[in-house]
Amino acid sequence: MDIRQASNKNKYNVVSSIYDIVAFILSLGQAKKLYREVAARLRVPTGATVVELGCGPGSVVPSLLHKLDPSSQIIGIDFSDQMIELANTHKSKNGWNNVNFECMDMYQYSPVNKADCVIFCLSLTAIPNYQKAIDKALSILKPDGQLLILDSIPLKGKWYYPLANLYTHFKALIVGAKPATGITEYIDKKTKIQEKHIMVGGVYTLLDTKI
Ligand SMILES: C[S@@+](CC[C@H](N)C(=O)[O-])C[C@H]1O[C@@H](n2cnc3c(N)ncnc32)[C@H](O)[C@@H]1O
After folding, report:
1. 75 within 8 A of 52, measured Cβ to Cβ
2. How far apart are CA 9 and CA 200, in angstroms?
């Protein structure tokens, strides 16, 4: 694990208990809406396996459960033990019987059965080397599987995008993320982008892709 990842892990451990409040503020009050948008794009069969890499305290899980059939399962992976502890508290409080959280570096995750969908929800730019992280996600997907990415990716093309990019970089300083312009091009090279959905004035991009 590189030094930035180690310090990120400590940072996420420290903020875990107030993570949802921080996410609400930094997303300009749009966090829940963003989670619903991610869930709305799920295209998986009955009994699907959905893996979320960098799941934090499981904030997107309620929206995913709302969309998935009860025979599906969600696996949340996060390397912060405090985040996973909180996620497990939410699991027992809400009776999420088909959800399992595992505390590990996402690079160590090697499931026996491949996933129908892998999600990076606000986590890809928190992981150094987005190419390696995307390759890992693709390696655990079934053929025809879906990769969903929601993150703050600097954009070009509209007059107000520089403002959105400024806010993205400001937010990244606080959370220790690294917004990279190359994410979309890399995804485009590796998968088929089905939809690129820009939200919150360009601060967030949702990439819905298929391998
Ligand atoms: C901004 S939070 C996103 C949490 C949640 N997915 C959400 O939508 O609110 C990013 C999470 O990624 C996790 N993370 C960063 N690098 C990781 C890695 N290499 N392996 C596993 N988790 C990682 C952090 O611990 C943190 O909980």
Report:
1. yes
2. 27
Q: Ligand 1 centre and the CA of 144: distance in Å?
A: 25
Q: How many domains does the chain divide into?
A: 1
Ligand 1 lining (C-beta closer than 6 Å)? 5, 8, 12, 23, 54-56, 59-60, 77-80, 83, 105-106, 121-123, 126-127, 175
How, if at all, do strands 73-78 and 49-53 pair? parallel
Q: What share of the chain is helix, strand, coil (3-state, %, to 5)?
A: 45, 25, 30
Per-residue pLDDT, averaged over 189-193, amounts to: 92
| Closest residue CA from atom 19 of ligand 1 | 105
Count Cβ atoms below 10 Å from residue 128 Cβ, excluding itself: 15
pLDDT score, position 1: 63
Domain that holds residue 102: 3-210
Tokens of 72: 């599906």
Whole-number pLDDT of residue 147? 97
Q: Domain with 192 in it: what CATH number?
A: 3.40.50.150
Q: What is the mean pLDDT of the chain?
A: 95
pLDDT band at 211, cuts 50/70/90?
A: confident
